[in-house]
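Q: What structure does this chain adopt?
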Amino acid sequence: MGSTRCAFLISTAIILVLITRSSSAPDAATQALINNICGQTDDSKDCQRSFYGDLYSDSMDAKGLTQVALALTLESASDTRIYLQKAQSDEKRQDVKNLYRICIQQYLSLISNFENASLHFAEEEYKLMISDIEPCERFVNSCQLVMGTKVADLGAKNLHTKVLVRMSLISGRLIQGS
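A:
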């Protein structure tokens, strides 16, 4: 029952974010929040592009930006996991297959943590949400560490996911501080 409820809440949040995207520029307060959040990531331009592509309103507070960041992170992590599983399936060398297995496990952990974070967000349990998000950068870093430069596309996917994780963490902390 609990996992069904969680899956429903997450699916609903993602659908709402994806369907109701805003087409105009954010207002000054929203822009200031985005600048603050993105300035604390490893790639502020990627962060800004991600937010701008998925704002569902011209005026959003930290809570709204956190909702966007959570949904984007889940989407990116799921896409990366699928990419890794396909690459592992296509790989002939057993040693590299084992490395893919490690990355897949790291991304499954990240997805699980973000599903929990999304549930805690919906329940307005922001301290628990932050606790769910905090270890997730480590999951991405672990994948990058074991794969190194063996798969060119994976480095870019890991960097993007890491930016999204930071966006979720920073915006979530802004909610907690307000």
